[in-house]
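Entry: Glycosyltransferase family 4 protein
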Amino acid sequence: MRIAQIAPLCESVPPRLYGGTERIVSWLTDTLVELGHEVTLFASADARTRAELVAVRDQAIRLDPTLAKSELAAHLSMLQEVRRRADEFDVLHFHVDMLHFPMFEDCAGRTLTTLHGRLDLKDLAEVYRRWPHYPLVSISHHQRQPLHFANWAGTVHHGLPEDLHRPHPRPRGGYLAFLGRISPEKRPDRAIAIARASGMPLKMAAKVDLADRAYFHEEIQPLLDDPLVEFVGEIGDGDKEDFLGNAAALLFPIDWPEPFGLVMIEAMACSTPVIAWHCGSVPEVVEEGVSGFIVQSEAEAVEAVRRLPQIDRRQVRACFERRFSAEIMASNYVDLYERRCRVAPALPAWPVAWEAAR
């Protein structure tokens, strides 16, 4: 099958440091190549891929030192190149939210659009009602709830290569881990409170975006003086196995409708159980008492820390292999691609589609 993967340009594919969507695009693309498909990746020139690379920008936007740059212009230029070459592919798989909708209406039936973010934002519903003919993929069932009416083709949970991280059935660290972004919805303050209450060291490997710097300096930085807390900063893939694999558990104390939560399966790949809040996709990812514990309060989280010896870390890794490998993810996408190739409905005139959706 001839497949185009269209990646966001904000981070490299895969990212050097933080970046979930681009990491998934990388693993999916390489695994599809391994499965024998002809894959073309549209991305920035610093991508590392086994597919044919169409470089549409010299480097990823976030790491570009140029001060004056346009994220929108870069993505529009990429989409025009995809548009020019669209007939070369059986399926066009977009990972850029809805940005391509106005440009590919005549071939929407052979596109697939994976939505990687939260969908409860103002204005989103109107867009998906206006363009109902684009088949969409959710990354968890819970993610769909704000757009229950949309044209959902399927749900595909994220997956990562089985050999990316080795299992760590006997961790050396004796600490709790927090990995992700420092932002209010990720609740690093909760992670610190849980560590303090349980008397267990906490290591925090986290990115601080420009938009979250005030929150970090005002709310989180004062909490880092505690001797139990070590702030590591942002880390890349090469450091994740050691960081996660030697932790007693990953703390995932979120306070928002998490679409998936890639860090949870990264921890599970390292045999590390997850203590996560009952929010968003968490109940779809964590198997209670097997790969971790699902909690709804700091007190429950502290109790879960005490119950960690009940978790068999070999079963945590087995859960990852059974449900969240890159090959499982890619195979699920191939099923959706084949469905698009078999059934690519004629596109109704947009007023008809728009009125039908209202």
